[in-house]
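Before the break, one more example. Copy the sequence into your notebook; we will annotate it together after we see the structure.
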Amino acid sequence: MVGLDPGTTVGLAVLDLRGSPLYISSRKNADDFWVFQTIRSYGVPIIVATDKSTAPSRVKKIASQFGARLWVPKEDIPVSVKEETARRISCFGMRLEDDHQRDAVAAAFLAYQFFAPKFRQIEKRVGNDREKEEFVKRAVVFGQSADRAMREYEHGLENRAPKVQHTVPRRGDLSPLLKRIAELKDELRRKDELIDLLKERVAELDRELNELRSSRERSAGEDLEILRMQRDDARRRASRLAKRVKMLERIIDGIASGKYAAVNVGSAGGRIVYRTEKSVVIVPVEKKKVEEDAVERILRLVEEYRARRK
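Here is what the structure looks like once it is written out:
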C-alpha cells in the first residue's frame, strides 16, 4: 500500500498489507520515474492513496501504472488526524522529517484502516499463507468477496498442479487462463507506461544538459568581457604613463639645453614647481621625495643626463 503526496517535494510512504511501514521518505524535485522505481522495489501495490478528497493527477497516474486501486478520503484529511498518525508511526521506531512524509503516511494509514476489518478476517482465514493472503486482499480491494477470491485461488492451485491425464477443457475452465491473459495485458500496459516515463526522463535530462551548456557559455562570455575591460584599462594606464615619461624627458631636455632655468623649487601637494622666465613647469612627485635640497638634486640629474647624451 502506498501513500503519495505530490508536489515540488514528493512525500512517499509504503506499507505492507498488515499496516506496517516499509519505507517513508521525501525528495525535492522527484520525478515520476523515481517514484515508480522506489515503489516497485517493494513490490506491486494494490492501493495508492492520497490525503486529498480530489486526487491529484500525478497520484492517478502512478496508480494507473501499477494497476492499483486509487483511494481518496471523503474529505481532505485534517491536520489533527495527520499529527495523530505521525505519533502512531513512532511506535514502529520511525520518525517523520517533514510535512510531506506526514501527509503520505496519513494517506496510506487511512487507506489501510478503511480495509482493515476485512483484512483481519482474511488473515484469520488464510493463516500464514502470505501468497494467498495477498491474492485475496487484492481481490477484496477491487470489490470481490473474500469467499470467491479464496475459491479462485484454490482453483488456480489445482490448475497449476501437474496432471497425468490431459482432457479437453470445457469453456468454463478457461476463466483462469483468460484472467491470466488480462493480467499480462495489464502488465504490458504498465511497461509501456514505464517506457514513456523513461522517454520523458531522457527528454528532461536533454533539456537540463542544454541549459547547463547555455549557462556555461554565458558565464564564459561574461568572463571574457571582464578580461577585455581589464585589458583596456591596462592599455589606458600604460598610455598615461608613456605620456608622463615623454613630458619628463622634455623637461630634462629643456633644462639640459638651457631652455629652462630652475630658479626656484617649492613643494605643494606633492608637486615640484620649476619657474623659468617664460613658463612654469609642474611635475607631480611623491611627497616623501620632496626635500629642501630638491634644486641640487635636479641640477645633478641634469648634469648626469648631459653626460649620457655626450
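Confidence is low (pLDDT under 50) at residues 161-173, 262-280, 282-292. The chain is about 60% helix and 10% strand. Try to locate both features in your own notes.
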